[in-house]
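Hi R.,

As promised, here are both runs. First protein below:
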Amino acid sequence: MSRRKRRASGPPARAAGSTKRGGRKRASSTPRVEPRAATRPARRSRALRLGIALAGVALAVYGPLLIWAHLPGPGPSTGLPGGAASSLGSPCTAEHVAEQLAERQLIRSPGLFRVYLTLVHPAFHCVEHDHPLTAELSPSELVNRIDGSPFRTSVRVPVPEGLNHMDLATRFEETRVSSSAEFLR
């Protein structure tokens, strides 16, 4: 009966590393190869590290440029008194626009403005008309005023009844939509 009880309780425990035959391990002539799934996480982690590094470089380049673009201009209307409108001339390239704005003291750094236009607004298209520009405007606001893109910002000006054309011209100049001279043309 004792044999039956032993068999019912299970086989005797084996020593660690032993096999059925004589307790010895069999020597293998070929080395064990890891499955391919083990290398995939390493590839994913390399791709993730590369993506994080590229995002860090982009943030290091574009971050300060975008912060600079939203800082206010050189000062309170040093370039064009009263928010007068100004035309920028015929060649509307990034270099020419930056030089014209620097001459009128609307930006401090024409080189940085040129880089901002090239990197952030590659499809910049200047519109040939008088722009109401002041020195308080940030570089991004200057680009929005000069750019002829259909996506540029718009301004709503309420026009109550009873205003004549001179009152409308004054109201448009106050809201910096256009100069009163340009409106009266």
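And here is the second one, sequence first, then its structure tokens:
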Amino acid sequence: GFEAPADDLEAAIAAAWEAHLGLRPIGRHEGFLALGGHSLLALGVAARLEATLGRPVPLAPLLAGQTVADLARSLRGEAPATGTDPLLVPLRVGGDRPPLILIHAVGGTAGPFLPLAAGLAPGRPVWGLQAPALAGEPMPPDLAGLADRYARAIGSLALDGDYVLGGWSLGGVLAFETARRLPHPPCRVIMLDAALPAQAPTDEATLRALFAFDLQAAFGAAAPTDVEPLYAVFAALVAAANGYHATPADLDLVSIGALEGLLAGDPAGPWLGLVPPGRLYAAALPGDHHGLLRSPDLARLVEGFLPPG
């Protein structure tokens, strides 16, 4: 049930969330992502709290889906209530079905996976992985370094049964690379509208234009003025993808593409030859790159590739 903020710090956090999320009242055990928060709203919340508290407020706890009480503990410098790796974002907790773990796209955040997580079968735990910079860590310079870091994060869950690893866009490529590094690998890897990276522009003006386009497509609104923390993550991930060359892996792959948009085409195409024959399944759904994650059809399709229990 509802539990009101326990002290002045929790009350200030709840007030900032209420102002930016348009919801009230917000209790101390409600999570930012679960209430509809995302990276742009997190920037506004952090700025409001910094003005109220007179101290820096990091984005990482908000984008990790922390509750009001969790964020208050974080701001006091106390240990989080859960001992999980800081890159892991609990998108749906509880249940005894084999879990699904999803890796971020070029934006670096796990929040876009919430509609997919909500549409899966009851009792299916779902974890997201966010970029290291959002948890206050340095960004590895390439996809291999990122995959190494994500393998450590997944290893911290100490999974001893079946699980599935997936990713959206660049996250699909990262899932492919991470899976081959895991001593206890996933039973399959699900790529969501994921293509092998092409050499991306490196000049500042073009990168900022691509970043603005990505924000517009994701949120349907112009970006606020202070997006530097998000742009830094975007630019670092674009740079990490440059120079990547995929090599074959002994994995079962599922490639689900969008029928519209920049990446429309044969979803199997990029991955043919990278896994053994007969171990690649491809499908496509209506919608574009960003709309795919919000499609109820996607959750039903993905659920069909997950172990039942």
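A quick note on the second one: Residues 204-219 form the longest helix (16 residues). Let me know what you think.

Best,
J.
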